[in-house]
Design goal:
The termini are far apart. The chain has 4 helices and no strands. Helix content is 71%, strand content 0%.
């Protein structure tokens, strides 16, 4: 049950993305625009994940690293960082995006 609740809490927003993104582009370029948006998002996520894994590797391999550091705490910090950074980016993008309420989509 906990995994279902966690999945709903973290993934519900992705159900809204296709409907919002399709309103952002003219009919002629709609599919390309949505594909570019998704592709750029996955690429940015890959780069951020790679960055955090490099930082994690530096922490683990540092000379000052002791056995008192809990690996679960490090992954929790990394996960929380992803959540915070993603929320900030998503919030800024939502605020900067235009209102599409009365937009004519037949353009």
């Amino acid at each position: 049950i906990a995994m279902v609740v966690e999945g709903f809490i973290t993934l519900w927003i992705f159900g809204l993305l296709p409907s919002y993104m399709s309103e952002r582009f003219e009919t002629k370029v709609r599919a390309s625009g949505i594909g570019l948006g998704y592709g750029a998002g996955y690429f940015a996520a890959y780069l951020l994940e790679s960055l955090w894994l490099m930082i994690y590797n530096i922490i683990i391999n540092s000379e000052n690293f002791t056995n008192s550091v809990n690996f679960t705490e490090i992954w929790a910090i990394i996960s929380l960082s992803f959540l915070i950074i993603g929320s900030i980016i998503y919030g800024i993008a939502a605020l900067l995006g235009p209102e599409t309420k009365d937009l004519d989509l037949d353009v």
